[in-house]
Design a protein that fits this description.
Number of domains: 5
CATH class of the largest domain: Mainly Alpha
Largest sheet: 5 strands, parallel
Shape: globular
Distance between the termini: 57 Å
Strand order of the largest sheet: 9-10-11-8-12
Number of strands: 14
Structural class: mainly alpha
Strand content: 5-15%
CATH topology of the largest domain: Serine Threonine Protein Phosphatase 5, Tetratricopeptide repeat
CATH architecture of the largest domain: Alpha Horseshoe
Radius of gyration: 33 Å
Low-confidence stretches: 1-5, 490-506, 988-999
Amino acid sequence: MVAWVEKMLEIRVLGGFDLRVNGQALKDLGSRKAEAILVYLAMRGGMCNRNVLAALLWPESPENQAMTSLRVALSLLHRELADYLEVSRDVVGIKPGANVYLDVTDLEGKLAGGELEQALDVYQGDFLQGFNIRDCLDFEDWRRLQQERVNEVVKHGLHSAISHAIEIEDYQKGQDFIRRLLEIDPLDEQAHRKCMLLYVLDGQRAHALEHYEKCQDILQAELGVEPSQETQSLYTQILQGARPGSDTTLMSVFHLPVPQTSFIGREQELVQIVTLITNPTCRLLTLTGPGGIGKTRLAIRAVTKSFHNYADGTYFVPLEGIASVDYLVHAIADAIQFKIDSLETQLDSKHQLLDYLKNRSILLLLDGFEHLMISAGLLSEILGRAPHIKILVTSRQKLDLMGEWIFPVTGLPVPQNPGELLPVDSSALRLFTERAQQANIEFEYSEVDRSCITHICWLVEGMPLGIELAAAWTPVLSLKEISEEIQNNLDFLNTDKRDVDDKHHSLRATFDSSWQLLNESQRDVFCKLSIFQGGFDREAAVGVARVSISQITGIMDRSMLSRVHTGRFFMHGLLRQYGIEKLKASLPSWDETCNQHCLYYTQFLTQRESNLLGDQMYIASDEVRKEMDNIRFAVNWAIVHWEGDKVRKILAGLLAFYAAFGWYEGKDAFMNIAQTRRDTLLSQNVLDLEKDPIYLSACTHQAFLLCNLGQIEESETISRKCLEPLSALGLNSELSECIHNLGVNASFRGEYELAMEQLERAILLGKESQNSMWPTYLLWLGHAYFLLGEYARGLESLQKCYEIFERLGNYWGMAFASSKMGLAADGLGEFDKAKEYHRQALVIFEKTNNQTGKGYALSRMSESAYFLEEYQQAVQLAAEGHQIFKSLGHHWGICTTLCRLGFGYVGLGEITKADGCFREALKQSRNYQTVPLCLYALAGMAATMVHVQGQVEPAVELFQYIQYHPQTPALCIQQTARWFTHINLPDNAHTAGLRSDERKKIEVIVDGVLNS
């Protein structure tokens, strides 16, 4: 007897559309839209409302006609595929348990199981490639989003496979994967860099250089841009003859700085460190030792030997110039290319970073931690929240953290017995010889010379920086003279400088000998250049130190200054400290140089203030970020030594930067500035702080950023303290900010009339005083109208705001205004127009690569779809937004999209799914104590409870609580109210009694709902 086997329906959508039953092609389902319905149902899973399909595929038709067209298409489908479809009066879907194969599901399963090559056999091209339906924009949007999602999954798998191929040295296999990757995304620069790397590792240098030109042509033709600095750096390394298999090429690809000189010795230490890094129990390893000992180079070298163990990469985080834990958070975020959201979320920078890292596998190299001991707790928090993160630290002292492993780094081995010479293959001798030959290509040493080199290396205790500085003098002095110079100074330091750490005696002697051999002009140049913090460019050197490129080159020739491929100059931290000591010894020179430095960076910042809020904002922000260490130094000098409008001008420029790119960082920066100014005034016996314009300006800017972050109590206290003094001094620009702050705070408290009155006053004053922030006041005025439910006035305010931002060329302002205009349009019931506003914002966010904004646009578009009763689309859009926010670790966005996802499910009648979304949003909102989000989630819970038998009465009570809570936006009430129209709500007297619930702690309400 032959067993009956159910026929299989095969749906293939990767690379086109192909439909088969038991291997036999089905050529015609009657229409393209019938095929689209089948694909949509297969991808979606579960049952789908007919009205969703009708709206998706017949958007331009009247509802009756669209439903008729849908019935015809379903009839055609059912005739051919009755065994696989379940069709009822209201819903349709793939029949549960039907024998259906979908290539997308197969692909994702194989990738999840690590079967990459089998998955690539399944992947035949883009999702529904060449599959077009006229006049179905929503379906096309859905198709495009699915295409992007599938491609990202495949790309991630290919990148992992390429890294593994490099690890096992299977370069041909790696190239095969690269080809597939570039077929999917020809603009993936990381893939192009890995392709170049594979060619180099395989000994095909010419092919690597040729591929760079190909990459350059593609980027120029498609985007009109040059390859990134990272790609150009790799190209330069290969062009200069980087050896196949050398670590310089690996560094360019795996986010590590490329050293300008070779790595010599340390073989034993390297093995020990790599062993520790790969030890599962060692998650925090600190390399300790004095400055100049070689900790950084050793750490970078160790990371290049370990990169393949970390699926999400290795990252170098330079910490010089980082002043506090807040700056440390931003330094790590910048290094790992995570953009902290400073515009919409109330979650602080640290928690955004922790959320982003928690599911990632990364090795962080934090370089130069010694001045951040008070911030070391952040590392413990990272390790506690993110189980797959490892941290390698270089520091002059241990961090004293639980779980910290210590690896002391000492000098290169040198003889300790008199008369003993360095072996010819010793690391110290090789280092000295190579650096001497870099300075003088004809350098060679004899046996007598080897004795002098041994003595030099002994004097500096094998410290690599000391050896390199000494070797740089070989074109000028004999080895004996170099040895004698260091010896003389070393004896002096050993006898007279007893407060200097022993390990720094020889290094200071090396600096002293280098100083003695500079002429007066070179000393002056060196000291003036030491004023720069975190590097400088040629223009700054001329503007601050009044030096020429030839004078800079003279200092570089003495290994006292270096230049990287970007063109910026850097001075080693210890050398800079030494130079500042010399500069301070001559107070007139110190004051003059600091003033010139301050003047230069004041002009630098003020020149970019308008660009930071205009069409050059991203270029300007990159320029400011690059110089932020110098700007901080200049600001600190100015607030101590300068007075009046000059300092206010600097602070206004600084606010323009922080307002656009760093609210959290900025509010701390202005707090520190205000504190420094306060201390300065008190030290001068100036007790009336409220008469000082600089102090008031810093406080007002701090309060401005605090209120934008929703930290209203602190903002309110500061703003009220500053209000009358600012008015008395006639500082109208800051006064407009102060009044704006009070208006925003009032809107957060639900005092909307007061908020609008103050914001309107702030707008007039800000415009008159030419405060560059005044257009943002309009955003808040429009938002206050929106929260109050005065949607028409809100929309009018936001439209004015949009027009101003458009004239300025401020793209992020245009996008956020457009997105908020969409919310106001929703309130007016103009839901189609609202979707268009959100779509317009989405286009700008996509063009500017603002992932946070993109998430918000999708999420808010979901709300518009919900009001249009396009519940399936509401779910889809909210899910897309949620995915973006989840990848960013963006708490505010995650919670709002969970709520909007939940409301979409309520509309579809999927109450269990909706309940899960709202409960998760409520838990997260409670954890972060964000009241507006708690109210939003509670509104959703009320909407689910009203659908459950026996829960109607508590649902009504909860709805009434939300309805009368002062922080509940009117639109949230509208969103929930549609599910209570069939219920006779309590009369006014009863309702008045319910208002006592407003005073209940929201935590009590939340806990009660979650525990029900």
